[in-house]
């Protein structure tokens, strides 16, 4: 597989990766495009530094397409991660990925914001999750040399990502609260959205329609 350097990181140089980059560029705002590229580079570098065998194209497509439905126009009908995962697996199949690799991409996208599961899946899913979490919350920040992180961020700047992403999550909590009750978007609804109130899982268990 051909390779090239991007922000100092060796990544695959293939038509599929080029198509994934363009697909993400067309569907993501600039700050979000930079985020998915940084996530890809961080995921790749974490795998390289830890000598973790992985499918570099799967990691590229999974990270680059993981947020293609995250925007302030999002209206469901399912969690944005699941909507993006279905688009990503369609892209993978149309690009010639065999089903096992395509399914890894679906899992990488659908689980990108659920590290309590994603980090324990296949290497590709775990690395995608790790790279994304590093860029969003700084998880494993010190595993990559500081000068490498700084070069990646310099070439793909954050462009106010914290504030822009917060607005997207609050939008989902406002217009589709039912998609937030069992995931991290709930935290944004509870902190920032007036009138947001999530049901309690404890009540759901207690009120299940069964006689004990």
Describe this structure in words.
- The structure is a single chain.
- The chain has 212 residues and is mainly alpha-helical.
- Helix content is 60%, strand content 4%.
- It contains 11 helices and 2 strands, in the order E-E-H-H-H-H-H-H-H-H-H-H-H.
- The chain has helices at residues 15-27, 30-49, 56-64, 80-94, 99-110, 115-118, 123-137, 146-155, 161-175, 185-192, 201-206, and strands spanning 3-6, 9-12.
- The chain has a two-stranded antiparallel ribbon with strand order 1-2.
- A hairpin with a 2-residue loop joins strand 1 and strand 2.
Write the layout of secondary structure elements.
Blueprint: E1 3-6, E2 9-12, H1 15-27, H2 30-49, H3 56-64, H4 80-94, H5 99-110, H6 115-118, H7 123-137, H8 146-155, H9 161-175, H10 185-192, H11 201-206
Antiparallel strand pairs: 1-2
What is the percentage of strand-forming residues?
Answer: under 5%
N-to-C order of helices and strands? EEHHHHHHHHHHH
Gyration radius over CA: 18 Å
What is the number of helical segments per DSSP (H or I, 4+ residues)? 11
Mean pLDDT: 97
Which stretches are low in confidence, meaning pLDDT under 50 for 5 or more residues running? none
Helix percentage range: 55-70%
Largest beta-sheet characterization = 2 strands, antiparallel
Distance between the termini: 59 Å
What is the overall silhouette?
globular
Which structural class matches the secondary elements?
mainly alpha
Order of strands across the main sheet = 1-2
The counted number of beta strands is 2
């Amino acid at each position: 597989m051909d390779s090239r350097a991007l922000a100092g990181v060796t990544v695959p140089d293939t038509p599929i990766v080029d198509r994934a980059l363009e697909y993400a560029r067309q569907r993501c705002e600039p700050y979000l495009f930079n985020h998915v590229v940084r996530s890809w580079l961080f995921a790749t570098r974490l795998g390289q530094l830890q000598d973790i065998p992985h499918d570099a194209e799967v990691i590229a497509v999974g990270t680059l397409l993981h947020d293609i439905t995250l925007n302030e126009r999002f209206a469901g009908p399912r969690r944005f991660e699941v909507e993006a995962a279905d688009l990503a697996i369609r892209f993978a199949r149309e690009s010639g990925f065999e089903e096992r690799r395509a399914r890894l991409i679906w899992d990488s996208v659908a689980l990108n914001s659920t590290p309590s599961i994603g980090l324990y899946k296949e290497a590709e899913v775990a690395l995608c999750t790790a790279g994304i979490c590093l860029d969003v919350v700084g998880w494993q920040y010190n595993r990559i040399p500081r000068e490498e992180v700084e070069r990646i961020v310099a070439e793909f700047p954050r462009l106010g990502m914290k504030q822009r992403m917060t607005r997207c999550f609050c939008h989902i909590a406002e217009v589709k609260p039912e998609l937030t009750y069992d995931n991290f978007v709930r935290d944004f609804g509870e902190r920032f959205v007036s009138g947001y109130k999530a049901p309690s899982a404890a009540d759901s268990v207690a009120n299940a329609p069964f006689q004990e």
